[in-house]
Amino acid sequence: xxxxxxxxxxxxxxxxxxxxxxxxxxxxxxxxxxxxxxxxxxxxxxxxxxxxxxxxxxxxxxxxxxxxxxxxxxxxxxxxxxxxxxxxxxxxxxxxxxxxxxxxxxxxxxxxxxxxxxxxxxxxxxxxxxxxxxxxxxxxxxxxxxxxxxxxxxxxxxxxxxxxxxxxxxxxxxxxxxxxxxxxxxxxxxxxxxxxxxxxxxxxxxxxxxxxxxxxxxxxxxxxxxxxxxxxxxxxxxxxxxxxxxxxxxxxxxxxxxxxxxxxxxxxxxxxxxxxxxxxxxxxxxxxxxxxxxxxxxxxxxxxxxxxxxxxxxxxxxxxxxxxxxxxxxxxxxxxxxxxxxxxxxxxxxxxxxxxxxxxxxxxxxxxxxxxxxxxxxxxxxxxxxxxxxxxxxxxxxxxxxxxxxxxxxxxxxxxxxxxxxxxxxxxxxxxxxxxxxxxxxxxxxxxxxxxxxxxxxx
Length: 459
Hints:
It contains six helices and 27 strands.
């Protein structure tokens, strides 16, 4: 009798969660490439999503930022509308967020020369965003990225950005020797053959060796003529993906990455874009597309997509000074197939991560919960898990937020391979409490619980 009562409670909880869980596609399936979705909850409880759409990515000049709205309590999204479009140039990777003043931001980047290294980050701000269609934008600006010291007469020998690059490389090489190589036999041989050339490439771009011009070395009051590099590659090519982190309601920390320099950087403003400063570059196993969380003691942790060699793991970096400086990128135990993900620090302090829990492919999408600030992620739930091989739907590049009512909202690329014109963005929502109840029982997912109930009914 006791076992049947427990099973009844489990089944009842499953039904309650199912009633509270919603999902829908944002717009009908289409042939155009749709990717890089983002999501924000507006003050009235409506959702606003955006994504990029066109015939390709960086090489497709018709790519624009599109958007759609979902009224509070509804499951059918509005017809799409244009959020940003620089005619004749690809506009990529939007991210939406509300600042603590109640203003809506849209950040994205325009690709100027059809290569990632020519990306130019931008942002728009709106105070009138709860009507139909696109928000009314009151301000637009380019995020001019200027890391390191002044370079008016060329990059100087003691430049801060160059020093930061080399310090990170030195620390990461020590980490390789002491941790990664012993844990991964055979990895050292690959690094020995590829790492020196990689380090030389990144160091050369940091020094501006691809743009040597006449300059002057300023030292001890003297000005000496010299051929010096100029910072084209470290001022251009910075890209967006995941939402910024707002610290203490005042500091905006924007994660950026460079596919040219293969590193991560954080742009920081304390006056909502009036002035910007930039962190040190973060070097590791090509960790990009940072998603930021915060610990109870104020330490910031950013998880990074693994775009480098094996082992394919989500990486992490930490900051103890409110985002100004960051550690090297180290591996977590979480797999990553070289795909974007997102995370959010919940109101109760827990961390929620939505990612592809695999080293290869993008056929599953998993929500993982940590109640100990990333030390463990024993509670997981599949949002998607298609095991059909070549026909499997690709569910990837998610964005996740927590609503004011405790609901989790996720949007992600949903690319079906079993049909033509199979591309859309998908939205899923579920309650925080329901998620924890789902997966708190000995680490089991709802699917595991339902399977247990069904098997018990057959006894």
